[in-house]
Amino acid sequence: MARAMSEDGQSASLFDDAEDAAASAGAPLAVRMRPRTLDEVIGQRHLTGAGTPFRKLVDNDAPMSLLLWGPPGTGKTTLAYVVSQVTKRRFTELSAVSAGVKDVRAAVDAARRALGMHNAQTVLFVDEVHRFSKTQQDALLPAVENRWVSFIGATTENPFFSVVSPLLSRSLLLTLQPLSDDDVREVIRRALAEPEPRGLGGAITIDDEAAEHLVRLAGGDARRTLTYLEAAALGQSAGGTIDVGTLERAVDRAAVRYDRDGDQHYDVISAFIKSMRGSDADAALHYMARMIAAGEDPRFIARRLIVHASEDVGMADPTALQTAIAAAQAVEFVGLPEARINLAQAVIHISLAPKSNAVIKAIGAAEADVRNGLIGTVPAHLRDAHYPGAGKVGHGQGYLYPHDFADGIVPQRYAPDPVAGRRYYEPSRHGLEARVTERAERIRAILGQAEDGAGDKPKDRPGSKTEKEQA
Predict the structure, then answer these.
(1) What is the 3-state secondary structure (H, E, C) of 187-234?
(2) According to the model, what pLDDT value does residue 390 have?
């Protein structure tokens, strides 16, 4: 129990009201099930595990200033609450949605009085700190700098953009991850089994199909998991079972039949890919929405987009790959649900882009030749000439430096003998690749002169550089 000294010097619990509410059957299940120790926290073992910096700070009751960054429902408020519990400190919470500079200064002044009069440390928790203006954030700096409070700020936004640099530099940044499916299953199991009034006391059960649907709906959010579970449990008599129909009615969300390890997964992703390849953006968006609704890992979707930006679009629109990579980065930085917008943009871009499979055909043909033993030795003039004695064995001799030539291209053999003249990349006439086609043909015509013995020779170009000279 965390305690603080009142103004008259008497010890007073700051959590009596909170704990009474948590113990009350009328409090939300998500509040009642809030962890009381670090060992009760589900997930985030990279922060709460033995030997981690955060665990050491808490176990040693050390002064701290923390920024907790992560999606909703990952435990930011819970960690702040647990810190105040186990470190025996006062706990003051401000919401950046409603608090102003006056409220910040009042909380800091109260913390200073408690520290000066009773040596009582204060945890000042600011929820959604990214919503504070620069002035409001600056008002926190003296308290953080002088350690009048242990500051903990929670944010769902990237703090490098939403938190002022002085406050960021004075705080330990901890990144929270969405709960894994197994973590969510443990949240459900614990809530069902925990004795009343904290949990549901084993009075009801949930069947496997409904549990998996709840896991998908949760999206790694523990608070959402418990809220949906509580809604489904309402009206259930002792000994009752929550099935999919009960859960659907409670949360007003139809169950998407989608087994991430079964046929539905492969069928939907196949249809998603083929819809993009077929330039049907609407169908592709439909299948993406189905995957997201079913709880598919958005990183999996992003990876498929990156692959197919090159496999199905390629050089016909090289910017498709850039868009796909940007969407994948957005998934990591932003997370769902907002990142679905970035994914949708990439899906539309790839779907509507001109199509070419020339890239995958090119690498496939090259790999086939390698598998068939068409290897050959590297031509002597292309070999490494950067070590002593290389010139004595002819390495690098006769290499023509393309930048010495007006067009930047010189008739010169690059491929080993077994594959000389092989054409792997055959560009299409679609989109920007039509321009690539013309340039590729011009380059091949120039390089082909080396096969015919035409063009400049090294001896004809006394000013050309060897590989060793270039170094």
Answers:
(1) HHHHHHHCCCCCCCCCCCEECHHHHHHHHHHHCCCHHHHHHHHHHHHC
(2) 66
